[in-house]
Amino acid sequence: xxxxxxxxxxxxxxAGLFIAAVVIITLxxxxxxxxxxxxxxxxxxxxxxxxxxxxxxxxxxMEKFLTDNGAGRTTLLKLKTAYKLFINIKLLNxxxxxxxxxxxxxxxxxxxxxTINMETIESQSQSMAENLSEITDLTESYGGKxxxxxxxxxxxxxxxxxxxxxxxxxxxxxxxxxALYNALEGSGVTVVDMxxxxxxxxxxxxxxSTVDNHYSxxxxxxxxLAVMEKINETERVHILTEDEFTIxxxxxxxxxxxxxxxxxxxxxxxxxxxxxxxxxxPFSRYDNGKQVAPxxxxxxxxxxxxxxxxxxxxxxxxxxxxxxxxEELPKILIYGDSFTNAFESIAYYxxxxxxxxxxxxxxxxxxxxxxxxxxPDYVVCIRDYEQLISTSANGCGID
Amino acid sequence: MAFSSxxxxxxxxxAVLAVYYAVPSVMRKTRNFVLFGAGFVFYALGGVRFxxxxxxxxxxxxxxxLAVSRSKHRKMWxxxxxxxxxxxxxxxKYVGFFVSTLNCLGLGxxxxxxxxxxxxxxxxxxxxxYVVDVYKGVSKPQKNLIDAGLYLxxxxxxxxxxxxxxxxxxxxxxxxxxxxxxxxxxxxRFLIGLGKKMILTNxxxxxxxxxxxxxxxxxxxxxxxxxxxxxxxxxxxxxxxYSDMAIGIAKMFGFKFPENFNYPYVSKSVTEFWRxxxxxxxxxxxxxxxxxxxxxxxSRGRNILNLAVVWSLTGLWHGANFTFVLWxxxxxxxxxxxxxxxxxxxxxxxxxxxHIYTMVGVMLxxxxxxxxxxxxxxxxxxxxFGFGNGEFLSxxxxxxxxxxxxxxxxxxxxxxxxxxxxxxxxxxxxxxxSRFALCWLPKAFALLLLxxxxxxxxxxxxxxxxxxxx
Lengths: 399, 470
Description:
The complex is a heterodimer of chains A (about 400) and B (about 475).
Chain A: H1 2-28, E1 34-35, E2 40-41, H2 50-55, H3 57-68, H4 73-91, E3 96-97, E4 100-102, E5 107-109, H5 118-141, E6 145-151, H6 154-157, H7 170-184, E7 190-193, H8 195-199, H9 204-207, H10 217-231, E8 245-249, H11 257-261, E9 273-277, E10 284-287, E11 290-292, E12 319-323, E13 331-336, H12 339-347, E14 353-357, H13 367-374, E15 378-384
Parallel strand pairs in A: 6-7, 6-15, 13-14, 13-15
Antiparallel strand pairs in A: 1-2, 3-4, 4-5, 8-9, 10-11, 10-12, 12-14
Helix pairs in contact in A: 5-7, 10-12
Chain B: H1 6-22, H2 28-44, H3 51-70, H4 74-104, H5 120-136, H6 145-153, H7 155-158, H8 166-174, H9 180-212, H10 221-252, H11 270-276, H12 279-290, H13 300-318, H14 322-348, H15 351-370, H16 374-384, H17 395-414, H18 418-429, H19 432-459
Helix pairs in contact in B: 1-2, 2-6, 3-4, 3-5, 3-6, 4-5, 9-10, 9-17, 9-19, 10-15, 10-16, 10-17, 12-13, 13-14, 14-15, 15-16, 18-19
């Protein structure tokens, strides 16, 4: 009886101490802020308002605040990820952790299973083709040239690496590619397709990242080369050749979008490189109308800091202007999702002025209005295969 | 607000326990008042706007209890009280459904969206049972408004039951009820429920949601079965874990709640399943609907009619949708077949066959219960029998099986009476080691569950319990 009583007192005391520790640490820890690994803002303490109290949303938000700022949350998330990496890979033989397919040498996205609907794909491709035709017509109306540059994203480059029972999206990739090209037939739209180059197994690990969705600086350079060769079919514009630059890996740890989802505790690592022209050219840079430091790399403050893909051009920005002051050289407008960033950090070198737009952030003008206002010699849209036929944001037409 | 939330686990519950036990145990009424107030605070965590509704329900049922025991017009008061509760439930839960149904006939009535107060299906049923029991003399009326209010708004059972009868708790309202032993046992039960919810239910919910979000044409046979197995486990673990937590918390305050589940998935007939599943609801319908209508002591036709009413209402109670009504009628059909046709055959069949029959019947019912509408349910059942995407084994099913198999196995184990068997074995052993294990193991296990549940709470997203919607 005495032993039972002792066990009961000890049990209640331990449970109470645990809860008390949770409460004290949660309240003592700085609250709100940003979760680096989750790439999102943490919930701040909600403000008490009549409506939110009445409908219960105040306490729902409060619960989110408490879980977001719970004692030891980041450490626990890391421990849980490490546990899942061990259990899922070693015991369950299912290498999917936190929506990342963890292979010995590459981290790939987990693609949800899908049913291919050809009708939808064809209709989307048709809309996309119409948008691209509009932009081509507008650009050519004043003597400019438009190019639609398609680059494989990571799951396309590594589609053969997926375990057989996981979805590599091969079917979707093939279907959307074929449908778009069918829709574009006879439209006069110039397409630069980087599929064959960037999926080549011999150079795949060099031109793609093993820990991030985007291509490496080598992949961006090959894309730049393909675009410049297409431009040089009609006009002579200087191409930055391999003997004119050096590519240097940063000593910093590259935290790719995949490794970030795994709290950077997987065994797969990669480097992030910068391309530096041997002869540098001076330029001014403006982001969203404000002059900023003249650089195309957002360099870390020290070598111990982790680096993200946003190293290139400082990440996604609504509008960026790089003016090299060489008015004799053509002007280029580049728009697209984040694949444009690494490309832009090379492309500015060949043009008098380079402007870039990201319609996920830029809202001041439509693409058509911007082209009419700026009248660039070249308009280049860069999109990855995941967004190949998506007409949202950077898949827009002139309106 | 769910028990499996940081708000309740780390703040609300400890605060209520602290205030409650700070009041000297001789001050019963003050302690009851603390719990009564806590019920309202707990209810307000889900939105303050319906607190008044809860208060009105308490006052009416309290007054109803007094009126049916004293008034000359007892029956009239009884009818009034039942109509009030039915009106409350009907207005908030079923008006939209009935108007939409009438609109199907082309009436073109305006459908006003009415927010559903959490737990209304539970506290209105408790209100009805209280007044009916007082009317029948089963219980004495509660003269103290706070104590009557505490019975109806006691926070462990307020949102999702169990549906407690007044005579089960009436004595505890006045007597000294708390003990170290009870508190410890209650805490163990609460933490086991919390662990069940956080560790087993949530993964099963993820799996079931992933499968049920697909159209029937995308489902292979294996994926459809995997999805319904996951949902079968989810709904049991979810609801029984809530009951565990409710029973556990009540015990920490010295109240004894009735059991709501008795391992329903070991049943060898659907009749047995319903004796083990949501026991407090089944017995409520039996005592307050089925028996007053004549039960089974009547002609076969009348008996079937009585059963049809009960099972239609049972289905409708779970949700204002025809899928729920059909779910109830599906069980009516199985129960009638068992009662009038299969009774002797089932007794002669090997146990594993009757168990398979029961589980298939129950799972088909869960398809109706889980599906958004009838056509989805029919499509899903079709996919279970090969009329989905035509495949038997799909890559997706293999992926989910690899990922979830251990949790499925543990969930199945958690749905079986293994704990009871182990306890019985240890008691029978009666050695020093077995006594030590009986004393320490459940508590150590509960503490481990507390730690793991906390990890799941802060690292996962908040999930609502299924039975909150009822």
